[in-house]
Amino acid sequence: MTQSAAKPIYVLNGPNLNLLGEREPEIYGRATLADIEAACRARAQSHGFHIVFRQTNVEGELIGWLHEARSAGCAVVLNAAGWTHTSVALHDAVKAIAIPVIETHLSNPGAREPFRHVSYVSMAAKGVIAGFGAQSYLLAIDAAAACAAPSS
Ligand code: CA2
Question: What is the pTM of this model?
Answer without folding.
Answer: 0.95
